[in-house]
């Protein structure tokens, strides 16, 4: 099964209250994820959104996935163009690569925020939710 994953992270204050947003499109089914992840940076939120979206896609038995993110840093790091130097991102990068290896095929693309508007809105909404 093939899917498209649109993912985004948002942090109010950077670091600040953060949320993740994902839109997974599988054939005729859409799955939306909007979760508060506590106080962290925008880059950590971006990686957390990707990881959460990949976990959900694997749960749905997706084998091939196209990933769209408006985080140029995340896309370039995962495509091997940039090295990951931030100690907070290294374990998240490794987890993302571990999950990506479980797919038969994957591609990750940088898109402008306007093309990632649903995931962006889900992440922003989640950043306003408080942990209970």
TrEMBL record:
Transmembrane segments: none annotated. Residues 1-128 form the RNase H type-1 domain. Pfam families: RVT_3. One of its GO terms (molecular function) is RNA-DNA hybrid ribonuclease activity. InterPro entries: RNaseH-like_sf (IPR012337), RNaseH_domain (IPR002156), RNaseH_sf (IPR036397). Signal peptide: none annotated. It comes from the Bacteria. PANTHER family: POLYNUCLEOTIDYL TRANSFERASE, RIBONUCLEASE H-LIKE SUPERFAMILY PROTEIN, RIBONUCLEASE HI. This is Ribonuclease HI. It comes from Thermodesulfovibrio aggregans.
